[in-house]
Design brief:
Elements (H helix, E strand, L loop, with lengths): L1 H17 L1 H9 L4 H37 L6 H4 L5 H28 L2 H6 L6 H35 L24 H16 L19 E4 L15 E4 L6 H5 L24
Antiparallel strand pairs: 1-2
Helix pairs in contact: 1-5, 1-7, 3-5
């Protein structure tokens, strides 16, 4: 944003130099410096607002395009991204601030210039130094941005090189939503899952098939709990654990090794003791 402000300020300085004769003539005809400053600030603010409107339009198209590219299993917080009223208000405030920030220095410089060189068509004084200062600040900001981008890329490459802890190659993910009219209870859903996984495991080339309520890195379902013997605390003050429901074969399907204990199996009945894996 600061680099964009420096660019716009530099362009406004160049435009002010091109309009130097016009502004000098208006000053000679009686226009006050305050009036010239207000006019130039109004022009820069209108330019910034026009850029903000264009940016919101491009953002709306980008959000719509992202919705078509998002996979259906993403969390709602990511999948349901929209342009809200807060974003529009923030964009308006930023556009006004950018218009004032980028237009103030060129407006004050143009209003303080001597009218005689402008009327005579000669070069103005101080414009080159101010533009050189803006260009120097822009170069410094661009250097900081470039270094930051290189650090982000380095961190991203490092994250990609780290093992995820589970396999992703040669694996197929399918999301299934069962209609409640055909599967009204948990028993019918479990029967469908058992039959589906059995048929999938019987297919040639399939080494393992499993089901889960959520995929890895997709998020978790938070459940609150309390230990036996502890008094019931107020709502919202119990410890919370992030959980997901899985079927037998889940860890084998993802290639996650067992370090200790045992994994859930087909012998674990729904009405039996619950099996937890940490």
């Amino acid at each position: 944003l600061l680099i964009a402000c420096a660019n716009v300020a530099n362009l406004l300085l160049v435009r002010g130099s091109a309009r130097r004769r016009e502004l000098a003539l208006r000053t000679a005809l009686g226009a006050s410096r305050g009036r010239l400053v207000r006019q130039l600030l109004t022009e820069s603010v209108l330019l910034a607002l026009a850029g903000g409107v264009l940016g919101v339009g491009i953002a709306a198209l980008g959000v719509r395009g992202m919705h078509t590219l998002f996979p259906p299993f993403l969390p709602p917080a990511v999948r349901d991204v929209t342009l809200s009223g807060r974003i529009l208000a923030f964009t308006t405030v930023i556009a006004l601030g950018v218009g004032l920030l980028t237009g103030l220095a060129p407006a004050l410089r143009s209003a303080r210039e001597d009218v005689r060189p402008g009327l005579e068509g000669g070069p103005g004084a101080g414009g080159g130094r101010l533009r050189a200062t803006v260009v120097g600040a822009e170069f410094a900001l661009a250097t900081v941005l470039l270094v930051s981008a290189l650090l982000v890329i380095q961190g991203f490459v490092g994250l990609r090189a780290r093992p995820l802890g589970y396999g992703v190659d040669e694996r197929l993910v399918v999301r299934i939503t069962l209609p409640e009219t055909s599967y009204p209870g948990d028993a019918s859903v479990r029967t469908f899952q058992t039959q589906l996984l059995s048929r999938l495991r019987a297919l040639p080339g399939v080494r393992e098939a499993a089901g889960a309520s959520l995929l890895p890195m997709q998020g978790n379902t938070n459940w609150s709990y309390r230990l036996k013997g502890e008094p019931t605390s107020q709502a919202g003050r119990n410890p919370v654990v992030a959980t997901r429901i899985i079927t037998a074969g889940y860890f084998d399907a993802l290639g996650i090794p067992l370090l200790a204990g045992r994994l859930p199996g087909s012998a674990d009945a729904p009405d039996g003791p619950h099996v937890m894996v940490v």
